[in-house]
Amino acid sequence: MLEPETMNRFIKKILYIVGVACISASVQAQSLDQAKKLYDEGKYEEAKPAFERLVKQSPNNGSYNHWYGVCCYETGDLEKAETYLQVGVRRKVMESSRYLAEVYFALYRFEESVEMYEDYIGQLTKKKQDVEPFQLKKNRAENAQRMLDKVEDVQVIDSVVVDKEGFLKAYALSEESGSLTLFADFFEAEQAVPSVVYKNQKGDKIYYARETDDNALCLFTQSYLMDHWGDEKQLPMNVNSDGDDNYPFVLTDGVTIYYASKGNGSLGGYDIFVTRYNMNSDTYLTPEQLGMPYNSFANDYMIVFDDTKKLGWFVSDRYQPENKVCVYLFIPNEQRKRVESEDTEMKRARAMLADIRVTWKEGEDYADLIELAYEEIPYGREEIKKDFEFVITNDLVYYTLEEIQSPEARSIYEKVVALNRQIKELEEKLDELREEYHAGDNAQKQRLQPQILQSEQQLAQLYSQPEGWEKKARNAEILYLRKNNTR
Q: Which of 5, 147, 482, 487 has the maximal Cβ count within 10 Å?
């Protein structure tokens, strides 16, 4: 039996340990309550450190992992968010599936996003809760995956971050392609409508967006009548949507209209769409959503094509802080060309545009094109002729056969031109066959399958040929220039 004095010391020690534990539990509870209050108020940055401490103390606690993962997601730390939300999913925290789906979507891992939405929808169904909003999000992720599979092989040659309100300063359209003016400046309006007015090259037609009675932005057009603008017409509702529609631009053909919409199945915010006006029926074709890299989960809008400069611009707020946007300068393709690769990571990088250099062609120097982008070209100036782009050296590029000085090199490069034309025609034929195949019945599919396979084999043989002939032509031209001392 312990001595009384020893017993007293033992009891005091026990009471001290219990007291410390109680104080620690009280402080932790207080910290958790404070963190949850900040979390519920949407103050994720402030709540984040407390949840980080809690999850370190209890790494297997599903709720702590979920709350900390959500804080990471809401503050842009996606990789950390994935790690902790995965624990939440394993610990059966229902909302972790939903947030993890959002994380995967933001990381362009759309197939995984779809799986997480399916998991979350299944849990909602068991609880007999509304699944429609998340079914729409799942559909959006499936659409994004299709876009990723078909990401366009386009060269984005420059980007500049500017104030959101002043993004038009980064555009320098040639007069041949029309003009862009802020709505408030064009109409001298007191109310700053967040829209841009496009005026065609003839100066007799404008396109713009303004609010309608239901406070949604819709696209309108006006014509110049004698000495004033009038005859305002709203574009039909197969173009305008149930969301905001804005930022129109019309090609020099007068019938192809690009614009941005928050409806029509947008991936998030504004997405870029294209439609065409049918003059015979006075109708517009069903709008087509552009793919990646033009569209993303952020706001993407004001796409413009300058036929004279053979360049284009579009603006996006992806990866940008509030009140800033990035204006991208790109080289438009005559025909849409997909990134032909099985490398999903590479496709993801091309779609995301986190680094535009992944879109550049090896050895290309875009300095002259970037300079051209900001050059003023008045209406009526002869259009810059570019039949192709044949790089001889870093500072010598040919755009027409007439520029090639060596007769031998010109003869060889004619084969390159012919091969590229053959490839283009065969690609267009193959696209038509594939569309016909997908729309046809079983008999039509059996008939078309051999043609498609044959065309694919022909293309596979042709793709590698132009590069070899181009190299021969380049060597012949360089040799000719050296012999004649013209370089």
A: 147
pLDDT at residue number 140? 94
Phi, psi values for residue 4, rounded to 5°: -55, -40
Residue type at 339 in one-letter notation: V
| Residue 183 · residue 193 · CB < 8 Å | yes
d(CA 446, CA 429): 17
pLDDT at 9: 58
pLDDT < 50 positions in the chain: 2, 15-29
Distance CA 349, CA 17 (A): 55
Q: Quick one: pLDDT at residue 30? A: 53
Residue type, 222: Q
Q: Can you give the pLDDT at residue 384?
A: 66
Q: What is the pLDDT of residues 160-195, one digit of tens each?
A: 999 999 999 999 999 999 999 999 899 887 777 789
| Interhelix angle 132-149/344-352, nearest 10 degrees | 100
Residues whose CB falls within 8 Å of the CB of residue 360, separated by 6 or more in sequence, listed in order: 155, 157, 366
**The two structure tokens encoding residue 471:** 């190299």
pLDDT digits (tens, 9 = 90+) for 323-358: 999 999 999 998 888 998 889 999 999 999 999 999
Kindly tell me the burial class for residue 437, based on how many C-beta atoms sit within 10 Å of its own C-beta (0-12, 13-18, 19 or more). Answer: middle
CB of 466 within 8 A of CB of 389? no
Instruction: Report the alpha-carbon distance of residue 46 to residue 2 in Å, rounded.
Output: 52
Angle between helices 94-106 and 78-90 (to 10 degrees): 150
